[in-house]
Design a protein that fits this description.
With 105 residues, the chain is α+β, with helices and mostly antiparallel strands. The protein contains five helices and two strands, in the order αααββαα. The longest helix is centred in the middle third of the chain and has 15 residues.
């Protein structure tokens, strides 16, 4: 029996699509770190304080990602009275990593 040489050519953009898949079997802390990286990459660059304040914290049941800069809420949710639109940076980072954003209850 002859050995067959089978090669698969990856579809264009496959690497990018794989990076968008949820991390299967990853720990909550690894997932939170990935979400934090995405959020830091999409944070505004004016001062860098928002990106620097994006933090991962291990919890009893997993991990959480939060922004600790005092202007974080303004960036996330906007300031409608001043015409500043919401950017939803953390929410979009969660979704970009392939997960669903869940509001705190």
């Amino acid at each position: 029996m002859a050995d067959d040489d089978i090669r698969f050519e990856p579809a264009e953009g496959l690497d990018d699509k794989v990076l968008e898949l949820p991390l299967v079997g990853a720990s909550a802390e690894e997932i939170a770190n990935r979400i934090a990286e995405v959020a830091r990459d999409s944070a505004p660059e004016e001062t860098g304080e928002y990106a620097a304040g994006i933090t991962v914290q291990k919890t009893k049941t997993g991990a959480r990602v939060f922004a600790s800069d005092f202007k974080s809420a303004w960036l996330e949710f906007g300031v409608p009275s001043r015409g500043v639109p919401a950017r939803f940076i953390l929410r979009r980072a969660v979704e970009a990593a392939g997960y669903k954003f869940k509001k705190r209850s």
